[in-house]
Amino acid sequence: MDAATGEGLPGANVVFSDLKRGTATGPDGRFSFVDLPRGRFTVQIRYLGYNTVTQTVDTGSGQPLEARLTTSATEIGQVVVTGVSQATEMRRSPVPTTVVDHTRLNQTAAGNIIDAIAHTPGLSQVTTGAAISKPVVRGLGFNRVVTLNNGARQEGQQWGDEHGIEIDEFSVDRAEIIKGPGSLLYGSDAMAGVINFVAPDPVDEGRILGTATASYQSNNRQQGYSFQNAGNIKGLNWLARGTRKVAGNYRNRYDGRVYNSGFNEWDANGYVGVNKSWGYSHLTFSSFNQRVGLTEGARDEATGRFLKDVPAGPDDTQAVPVTDADLRGYGLAVPQQQINHLRIGTDNNFILGENGARLTLLVNYQQNLRREFGNVFDPSENSLYFQLRTVDYALRYFLPEISGWNLTLGSSGLQQQNRNLGFEFLIPAYRTSEAGVFGVARKTIGAVDLSGGLRYDVRRTTAEALFLNADEQPTNSTDPDAETKFAGFQSTFGNYSGSVGAAYNLNERITMKANISRGFRAPNIAELGSNGQHEGTIRYEIGQPGLRAETSLQLDAGVSYTTDHVRLSVDAFTNAIDNYIFPRRLLNAGGTGDSLSPDGNGVFRYEQGQARLLGGEVSLDFHPHPLDWLHFENSFSMVRARQPGRPEGEKYLPFIPADRLQSELRGNFRRQGKRLTNPYARVQLEHTFAQNRFFSAFDTETATPGYTLINAGLGTDFASAKGRVLASLFLTANNLFDVGYQSHLSRLKYADLNAANGRRGVFNQGRNVSVRLVVPLSFK
User: Fold this and answer.
1) Are 395 and 412 spatial neighbours (Cβ–Cβ below 8 Å)?
2) Half-sphere exposure of 503 (CA within 13 A, CB side)
3) pLDDT mean over 734-753
4) For residues 598 and 71, what is the distance between their CA atoms, to the nearest angstrom?
5) Which of 571, 574, 686, 561 is nearest to 618 (CA)?
6) Per the omega criterion (within 30 degrees of 0), is the bond before 335 cis?
7) Is-above-0.90 flag for pTM?
């Protein structure tokens, strides 16, 4: 009910995140659950324009729950489930965490889910065109960031620059982002952070619902269609979604249409299971299938047009300028890659009595098939073909609360095998086994929330030897013409990680946080064993089996001040990483000039050193009274990353995002007339500063000038006379003034020089206008 008037609030969401149970309040604000497990659990009550109420309740007490919500223009009280022992109010967790909710995702036009969340302070992305993006958290990415698909680890070829995240963007209800070592619950690769893409809240008992979504983006003519059906009948609940996306070549003011930058995608995902008084058990599935062109960026010197290879004889090719017809439509050329990611798993939560004890078990089988096609004579030939199969698990036991302590014990790990099935070889075939045990504790002492824990991991990687004959085909070691492509090796890494932190709620407005954590990351297979041309990075890569594991020590501190009309947060960190692994360009034997691969690209070898990172984020949001509908939101994020003791050209870490300032002015309105509800309009300034702190040695990186983008958007819900939402419309314009720019983390920045305009590399996407229509459906 409204705390001021006492009136019931219809349509408020009531969710038990740990139980995956949710409902909505009726016309009088009342709600109820059937077969709710008994125990002490966190409940979250959300309603637009009101502060979120979060509290721990005893579901077996038999007493009604009354929640009085106060109006507020700021957003507080959000619950997170990632990186904590149990669902926790975000401000009570000492670990820096950010949530990107579904409303924000709908208001953001992007080619993939990582681009959709990349405006989050402290988060950026490495990109290879419109379809491929990888998250970078506070300057660290690749195998240092764990991606979760609704709480379960997503295992693909994370080591590759041109390997994206195999998750359907339409399946994501919200994203929870941990900024800092998440190794405690998720193991080695979470040294830099964790991103959890969370599915929609469960459907009310007795309801069958659906959602139809359609979107179009003007720049690359990207079309997206998605349909979801979900229901809950007497505890039998399900969710099923199918998605289709297709995009052509994107454009910008300096390159025009960028040849072979399109992609297409078919996805299906969901779950079926039961929710009862003993807990829940769900069978989950996900199938992600994408084809994406790989832009090489070669140019015709006279005209600056992109070049493509065509057959010029039985064994010869010729590079010719692309035609206008090549740039139109949705066709893909070579090189291109095809990704098929299949996941089948089970998600279980068993309530052990009424004292709050419970046991959760996640088990998943994943198969990631990644094919690269590069033969113009036979476009269907698998040049590179990785088959990665993974079985992973996560077991957690939540002990009953003892003297205010909440203790969680658990184990997680995986068994993994990767095979080479193509005609070219970049990494060796390998097997990896990993297991870890951990304990996490949390306690509230007055206004202080304490949490911390300890974990120990062991990871073993066994790489298979590979010998090639004179025709570059696999052979055995006894062949007199055999050359070693990969030397077999076995590497074992064991280490511990841990953290301890506190959140001090000085009063209802001020919260202070501090956390110290130790992270650990075992080297990935590319760093240990690669030996080949890595097309996506336009370089030849060499691994070193003798690399040691990275370890980090990070200190986080933050303070937030929140009132009904102002929210200020300051988060700072310092991170010291020992044995930091990075690719370094090699000189040839004479010590002058670059070592070049047979394809003429630079040769890079993985090296180790010391890394020191510091930085943080500042956010300041105004909601001026009495203009509560007006939001002025601002953020600034920065990272400084150095390698102590290195020469001048090597003193900075490679591929560190530039400083970024964002300011957004947004108006949120409750109702306009009888049929328009929740309309909004926003305009955003995004200024990325010049990046002049870069790893300049051996031409590894170049400086990147700063740029300013203006984005805008508006939208509304269309309602029936009785107030039911019939459809939601979102209009978005990114890079409104069609600025030509290159992100410092764009891999295409290092493509060939365009002699026609004197600019090197391929530029990022120009002006892009997007429209998205979401239609909710009610079958029961």
Assistant:
1) yes
2) 23
3) 93
4) 66
5) 571
6) yes
7) yes
